Amino acid sequence: MAGNGGYQVDSYDLDLSYDPSSNTLRSIAHIKGSVLSADGLTRFNLDLQPTMKVTAVTVNGNDATFRHDGAELVITASALLEPQAGLSVDVTYGGQPDVVRGERGVDDGGWFRTESGGAFAAGEPISASAWYPVNEHPADTATFAVTATVPDKWQVISNGLRQTDDLPHPGPGKSIFRWKLDEPVASYLTTIYIDKFSLVEDTLPDGKPIVSAIGPNVPGGKDLAVRTKKVIAFLSGYFGPYPFESAGGIFTGQSSTAIDLETATRPVYSGGTIDSVDTEVHELSHQWFGDDVTIKRWSDICINECFASYAPWLWKEQVEGTDLDRMWKRQMSRAVDQPDFWSSPLVDMGPGQEFTSVYDRGPLAMHALRKEIGDDAFLTLLKQWPAMYGGKNASFDDLEAYVSTLSGRDLGSFMDAWFRGRVVPPLPYRYPGDLGS
Length: 437
Ligand code: TRP
Ligand code: ZN
Prior knowledge:
Oligomer: single chain
Number of helices: 9
Shape: globular
Strand content: 25-35%
Radius of gyration: 22 Å
Largest sheet: 8 strands, mixed
Bound molecules: tryptophan, zinc ion
Structural class: alpha+beta
């Protein structure tokens, strides 16, 4: 039910206040977009979890009627909205945001409380609808901004750049924060973190700000944030220029909810300590693969996760001197006679299976692809894919077509064996290049 038809969103701008002591959120969401339906629209849906209660909706400045049914907010405009016309929707709502429990193998997402009494929003595929009305579909990317008022001593961080000019007065005993992301992203990549955190700031070599939030109970958080700069420099060497205007991370320090997610400009690392650099390499590589290039459908998830799960291999190879062929052979020899490892494919895996194979089978397939097309073509792929599809949606089919172009031959059977098959890749595809020796 997530995602809706008939329109597309260009921007979300939230004006919210949050009280951590009662977990109460009050907000007006300002949503701008346009009508896609060729016949125009009178009625359309936004996704919003039932914990959020809506009190008013306007469409293009006019009061609209609405019905909130489960996680669907059904809005009826007072007049027909013409095809192509601009759409401006204001939704006034509030309540006690909560975690949305995942179904069918899908993880929980939404609004999580922190052990220090704060809160953060994260989740994939569902999270945004836990705290604002949204077209919760990965293909409908939009810019995002939030102005948040909280009691004094609490702080707020979100995606993009911090705004300090011309903020309204928050009222006595309150503090106000504004964050704004001008590059359009999918809604699961938006986040907010409200807590008594500290900020670690730095800049990328090109002057873009790095701003990281370190939760009150995070050991060694400062070192983790400092590492961000190094990892982004490393990844830029492979993937090309860092695609956003700002960078950083959100280190909430949760021992109970170990969620790591590639939220735009500022991934959430909520697992407390991140003792290996792999997680940071993984989430930051998503800034190119997933956040800048976005998927058309959830079943295209491999174009996010297969790359992001291969990025730590690149780090291991270059920074730690690991022999990747040996690592691949070791993993392969364990997997080769395990039917379960291969039963869920990397594309068109079926609902609820999106994340079953991408993290372990994904990097094995990527390394096989590298061997099949050779290092030059593979390195071109890593750089050209974000250059071609940055700021756009892409599908696995687009990737397949591009690697065939790059290699100068039809890779169809190889790709079928490694990415689409439900059994171990048959010979001769199983050991490309010198991986069989
Ligand atoms: N995309 C996340 C990552 O690669 C993993 C993930 C999948 C996730 N589903 C999630 C994280 C739900 C949080 C909630 O790191
Ligand atoms: Zn990932």
